[in-house]
Amino acid sequence: MKQAKVRLFVEQPLGKGQTVLMDRDQANYLFNVMRMGAGDLVALFNGRDGEFTAEVVEAGKRKGVLLCQRQTKPLQLPPDLWLCFAPIKKARTDFIVEKAAEMGAAVIQPMQTAFTNSERIRRDRLQAHAVEATEQCGGTYVPELRELERLDKLLTIWPEDRQIMFCDEALVGAKEVLGEVGGDKWAIFIGPEGGFSEAERAKLRDMGHAVSLGPRILRADTAAVAALTIWQQHLGDWG
Amino acid sequence: MKQAKVRLFVEQPLGKGQTVLMDRDQANYLFNVMRMGAGDLVALFNGRDGEFTAEVVEAGKRKGVLLCQRQTKPLQLPPDLWLCFAPIKKARTDFIVEKAAEMGAAVIQPMQTAFTNSERIRRDRLQAHAVEATEQCGGTYVPELRELERLDKLLTIWPEDRQIMFCDEALVGAKEVLGEVGGDKWAIFIGPEGGFSEAERAKLRDMGHAVSLGPRILRADTAAVAALTIWQQHLGDWG
Hints:
Chains A, B: It comes from Aliiroseovarius crassostreae. Chains A, B: Residues 78-232 form the Ribosomal RNA small subunit methyltransferase E methyltransferase domain. The structure is a homodimer of 239-residue chains. Chain A is α/β, with parallel strands linked by helices and 239 residues long. Chain A has 2 domains: 6-72, CATH 2.40.240.20; 81-235, 3-Layer(aba) Sandwich (Alpha/beta knot). Chain A contains 7 helices and 12 strands. In chain A, the strands form 2 sheets. In chain A, strands 6, 7, 8, 9, 10, 11 and 12 form a 7-stranded parallel sheet that branches. In chain A, strands 1-3-4-5-2 form a 5-stranded mixed sheet. In chain A, α3 links the parallel β7 and β8. In chain A, α2 packs parallel to α7. The interface between A and B is medium-sized, with 33 and 33 residues.
């Protein structure tokens, strides 16, 4: 049986017998870059209906038509986990977004901290990056990119029922057992390269659960993957 | 008290009262790029003697002299953990080496697998990358970069007393409890983007302990950090 070699995120609804129109960019990618044509198979997902195999029925220069054949994966929602991080250099920020999508975060919340340099982010660019990472990793859900928010404001309006796990560079050796805390709504906080300020750390200690990421100082993107691993192992869908 | 703002790896022995000569590249970095001068402090480590604070006593265009004042960190050896990985695109390979240094691997072993594209690596370049990552992360030990080796050969001469942890993409849900296996010599095996071949996987299953990295497919660099996290949490120095 032929296999879909390309995985593509689309906005349209998916279902058996549903036709899906390719826009100019998608047509260019499928039919020029990937040299696909009528009869070839593509895996489609839209973040809501799972994954479908679709056959190319029309391949044009600027448009195309695909026909959904069968569902190949049900929608698999990630755990209700937010990753809150302080944007750093562009490439590292891109990496954190990619990693969050691969590791299964539901929401990505960029935040400004006392030691964050970045005043603004390109939310649409980062969202596109999350889509691309989801296409790659076989996920059926694309994490939602939130607008940049100040850490102090985030914590002021923080929902009471969402637990906070935060990575404390000052903590050596000790770690709370996440399993004992429980709860199904969580957020992980990752500080910027310079770490959290003393005031921020005190506030996070007060509101959240500190974990140690070992005796070496991790870059923010490494820390994001390590923290997501710890959480997914204890409370998430890696069980 | 003045603090060292720069951390530098050197080859020479370190000890209280020891003078350390800067070569051309180091002098350029300290005195031109970082604009340091006599009286400024630098943190030095050599992978053997821990970390020392040293004062600049001579700052020249092509050379310089530093004087070790006091030890600021003892040598902290990482656990006896090897990271065996299949080199991929240059940037991702660099990332894996950086991550291995940050996360505390002792040995980094690049390997050729059935689905590895890379025929060769630049060992010296990757070793320099590990040095840089160690300078950044505050570690006092630089992981050793081994020469590229074929996976089948590696497994043929595998030391009997070294346990293997390997990340099995086909494994869903189950995971062995590493703590029950125990042992203090370990190696983590990370496959290439295309995964291990069926034969390789069978061999690794036979010789090692499989762990799951969740339901999504992780890129090799993400998988390396996730696997190192799991190992460090259960058996390493994050305890």
